[in-house]
Amino acid sequence: MTLARIAEEVGVSAMTVSNAYNRPDQLSEELRERIFETAEQLGYHGPDPVGRSLRRQRTDVVGVLYSNPLSYAFDDAAAVSFLRGLSSVTEEADLGLLLVPAARGVSGERDPRAASQAAVDGFVVYSMSDEEPLLKAALGRRLPTVVVDQPLKEGVPFVGVDDEAAARMSAEHLLHLGHERFAIVSFALSPDGREGLADPPRQEQASFRVSRLRLQGYRAALEDAGLVWCKVPVYECPGSARELGRRAAEALFPENSPTAVLALSDQLALGVIEWATEHGLSVPEDVSVIGFDDIPEATGAEPPLTTVHQDHAAKGLLAGQMLVSRLRGEGGPSAEPLATRLVVRGSTSPPP
Amino acid sequence: MTLARIAEEVGVSAMTVSNAYNRPDQLSEELRERIFETAEQLGYHGPDPVGRSLRRQRTDVVGVLYSNPLSYAFDDAAAVSFLRGLSSVTEEADLGLLLVPAARGVSGERDPRAASQAAVDGFVVYSMSDEEPLLKAALGRRLPTVVVDQPLKEGVPFVGVDDEAAARMSAEHLLHLGHERFAIVSFALSPDGREGLADPPRQEQASFRVSRLRLQGYRAALEDAGLVWCKVPVYECPGSARELGRRAAEALFPENSPTAVLALSDQLALGVIEWATEHGLSVPEDVSVIGFDDIPEATGAEPPLTTVHQDHAAKGLLAGQMLVSRLRGEGGPSAEPLATRLVVRGSTSPPP
DNA sequence: CGACACTTCTTTATCGTTAAAGTAGTGTAG
DNA sequence: CTACACTACTTTAACGATAAAGAAGTGTCG
After folding, report:
1. Which residues 238-297 of A have a C-beta within 8 angstroms of B?
2. For residue B17, which of A144, A167, B24, B149 sits 20 to 30 Å off, Cα-Cα?
3. pTM for the full model?
């Protein structure tokens, strides 16, 4: 059932039927009624969205690209908050939110065609590695795009916190408390799934910008305090699950017996605390642990986790606003780093 | 930059360029390479998704309709789990997930055009009131559609639990413990925002199927035990927030002093417990409270909440499978109610 | 050598809509 | 009574792609 069919039935031009739906002021109220009646009878439910999009050259949809299979996003409290912020803006602007499917193929690579085939007016790219082909495909479309957290690409609007400064701040907190023996627990530096100690070259070449910057922040703080960076063990986990934090602790403690652990995420930090507690170390008396993100569980943990707070919903909000104003052709707000703050709870104290 | 432009440049027909992208076996490897090179040079990044959708008469996108503004969904643990299940299926099937925007207008009504204008191959309707115009618009499109939780519409595939049986089961648990003085805390019966005691006629006319069925289940159990239903106070809250549960408790306790409270959601139940505890009633010694949903907080609550467990992710999974198989034209699995089970924790015990 | 398959590319027609420009007819002001 | 605006519609021409069917050339087999 098409516009044209209704037009024929009513005895008017297709354009008039189109106008009945889109510009009521262009025809008489009476004819408009008649058109709707006929449409109802013939089971026509308004202009086809695809035909309309083709002709108007816009879809009124924003695509979201996520660094992992989509379903993981709904397991990740930060991603969910982000989506909440983003969706409140897009909804307000009457834009749909298309979660672009990009399951990993057999090779572990994600099909970049997902981005080429998405019928959208713009993209929000969330926390993606610098080298994803998916990202390249999305940027290739030359649609308005906003990148969140990573990667930072020349000329592409960006939303995120100042990861380096925030990491520096948390390391300084521990330095002020008097710590000197540090260990660091990082999530992935590159998407190659490696696990274990990462040496400085690998740290500097990390393809995840966020990991790279946080390590730089820690390094700057520790070096400013006169410590030797290459003696600080950096354990790289292939993800950010609590279990991985435990494994990292298991690898780090026997050899290094740090008095302070800097974790790149709260999940990792909580894993470290779990392992420590189970192995007779008390936190923070024997060892201080600091996280990053301030997830809800951080408050209720035992002890409550000292961490860097960042507002994920605000990121979504800002990303949404930036994209919407770009879609409208306005300049719009641009990339100021969002604020973070150190939340001191119970997992840090002076060294024993 | 279009297919035709590339075709012209390479000196072949548009169809051949289309085939280069979609059916590599239809042309020589060498020509295909040449086409891609030219495309690269001219900045063409593959067939336009909208044009392609129009011609193929499919979008490879599934639309999701939610009973509230979209951004609320990301605050609702059940909805998030549901989306996780759903997205894992759609992603596997290489389908996008379009979150359809339907902010409430000035009148509180949601614009039904959101559903008419969504470029999708099918819909998943999540937890929507029977009378939403948005729902009507979606069903009007005659696309494959699966409804979750509510409403139950003739001929539309449905996924959900047996709410009546589950409610009955939880009431029976309290009856077995020996309770006789009950009160019920419900979320909305209709979307009119009313708050306060709801009499039986209002209960029976509830436009939210889930509310209606759960009340029926409670009623059946209590009446079977010889209690008089119309003496059981049913307090209707206009939503499901914890704060509303507190308000309900405040309204119910002074007058009725129940020994057992049946709440239609865990959030409401937790609100009731909070109020009771603060007002010198201990749970479960003075009053037993039972919830519905088994949200994560239920375990950690003080006392841990007895509740009806339902698997939200499984709902999403099943809804996704049903829709996908329908999109493929297969019959596919259909509507068996999903299992629930009573999880007895610390918030229920025999009456004082 | 003719029939038939196979590969590689082309032709034609259409998917459903709307921007832009145009045409009557009707009123209204100078 | 002419010019000009205004209302209510129509005409034309895309938007960008692909299904289906066809054609030209090459090889193969009895």
Report:
1. none
2. A144
3. 0.91
